Records
---
Amino acid sequence: MFKIPSLIFFLLLHSTLFANEIEKSMDVLEQTNSKLKNYQEKINNIDDKTQELLNEYKYTNTELKTSRIYNKQLKEIIASQKEELKSINQQLVNIENTQKNIFPLMLNMVESLKQLVKLDTPFLLEERTNRIKRVEDSLNKADIKTAEKYRIILEAFKIEYDYANNMESYQDKIDNKTYNFLRIGRTALYYQSLDLKEYGYWNKATNSWINIEDSNAKSNIRKAIKIANKQQNVDFLNLPFLTLKESK
């Protein structure tokens, strides 16, 4: 009877010790799992950081390649702009030289206009002289470009040229007396007094006005003035005029 309780006590003690060992083992195992979990989290964090660094590297590498391409293009653009600037500077020099050469030419053209009016049949003298004065004034204005100055001169020449291809009637004065004038091209210029009593024409040979006494000539001048004023249909005219050639 004594041995059995002793055995039971021994077994209980052994069981208690074994349970304590198991509990210790479980604690160690749990601690180990916890450490392993921490290690895994650290590994995961390291992997995330590595991936982040890798992504940053790829992005930086892409940006670097893009920057290199951009810098290359920028260098080419700058080089092209330098060449273009060099070309523009040369063009400016050429333009400046051209302007230096064209200004004397324009002065000569204006002088030619003056001589044309001076030696021509004396029609619309005030209008033509004022036009030349405006052309001269334009040459001295800094706000008018050279091309525009040249255009103004050419326009004045065109107007003078057109006089040779038309006829017109207008009023002007001779010795402060008003007359009706008839211009036919640049070759013939006649006058008629407002009372229709006096008639005459410009003689280029003598550079003077010649009176007309012929009644038929006076009648043709009256008709021509009406035609020029569009008061009568175009008709054949028999007008007297004396050219330099005829006077020789």
---
Amino acid sequence: MGSIAIRTICKPFLHGNLMRQACIRDTESLSPRHRSSKTRVSYTLYKPSPSNPFSTSSSRSSFSNSKSRSGFIGWYLSQLESRPVVTKTFTTSLIYAAADLTAQMISSTSSSSLDFIRTLRMAGYGLLFLGPSQHLWFNFMSKVLPKRDVLTTFKKIFMGQAVYGPANTALFLLL
């Protein structure tokens, strides 16, 4: 019987808006007769610590390439990887429709009915304008300001509030 050496090499990378870590686990039999090597790549999604929201070192959730993804979350994450713009666009549309229906339910009196044309307009705005523009904006900001430190985060927030927010609001009010 020979010994087995296991090496794990991890490197963080940005995937969309998520910080991930690619880990390569290399197992090698140290026995001369059974000299073999197996490599497995896994991806880890970082969740910020509640005590330090800028930290990415605590409470990690691991995703393997295919088998550990199951259910709706697994399907959604695979759609985000294969079709990011389409997935984000439809997600934004559904969120806008749900938000509008919720706002109508909260603000309406018991005798008034829901305005489904308004809800359809809001869903259309999310589908045609907001979803694609947010995808492009956040990718642009990640390329222009690639660092993930506190100062760069504040710069991104300022740019979003000074440039993207007013442009988005003007477009919303024009439509």
---
Amino acid sequence: MVQIVGSYEPLSKDNLVEYLKSFNVSEEIAQMLAASKSPVVISDLDSEKVTVTNEGTPTTFVFGKELDITLPTGQQIKTTVTIDGDSLTFKTVYADNASVFENKVYQFTNEGLTSTLVNHKNLKAVVQYKRL
């Protein structure tokens, strides 16, 4: 089993700007998010939960339990996380419109992490991270 806990620095972001814009994010904010070099930090992993820190904000997910989250844009979402071997799967829906959704898989290797995102419009983005 690969070590999941750790810090991961983004290396490449394929189709991320267009992906974000499909959620009605402005071009300016999508470009800013795509340019971010903020690491993803995975911590406090056990059989029941995991803490994921994005853009400096930690969020603890209990596996299989829906969590209400408010995005920086004010949008309310509901996310459920599961673990399967060397991957974490995040299933997210808008709280006010379940037809708007995202499925994100973090696949961990000894070298890093690949984040694959697919949304309700069947758009896909892939972000590669290296382990720090």
